Amino acid sequence: MKRYIALEDNVFIREKKPELKTASGFIMPEGTSNDFSYGTVVSAGVGSFVNGNFVPLSVQVGDEVLFPRTVMNKITFPDGETLIIMKAEDIIAKLEEVDIEEEKTEDK
What is the fold of 10-107? Predict the structure, then answer.
């Protein structure tokens, strides 16, 4: 079995079926499902150098992320799996589970 490893500031994402509401509760407005997509990071590089300074990635394997469809590149590997490869900087948001009751308590 082979494992594909993203290098530098690249990430591999397993795209999820577009829905208007994600499992983590993020609600995508009507009509945006064609412009944006989301999925799970399955491989992430370590980061890159910017102006001589190392900048680590802000996402890691297992994160659910939102990204514009215009920057995604699909690649099908010899084993038949299709993943999206993109620069981590093109990811718009990381989706997180939140406990609504706990958030309400913290706001008081």
Answer: 10 Kd Chaperonin, Protein Cpn10; Chain O (2.30.33)
Question: Measured between alpha carbons, how far is 48 from 59 in angstroms, rounded to an integer?
Answer: 13
As a whole number of angstroms, the distance between CA 84 and CA 71 comes to 10
Q: What is the pTM of this model?
A: 0.76
- For the chain, the domains span 10-107
Per-residue pLDDT of the chain (108 residues; tens, 9 = 90+): 677 899 999 999 999 876 566 666 766 665 555 788 999 999 999 999 999 999 999 999 999 999 999 998 999 988 899 999 999 999 999 998 877 776 666 665
Structure letter (DSSP) for residue 4: -
Q: Which residues touch 46 (CB under 8 Å, ≥6 apart)?
A: 8, 56, 57
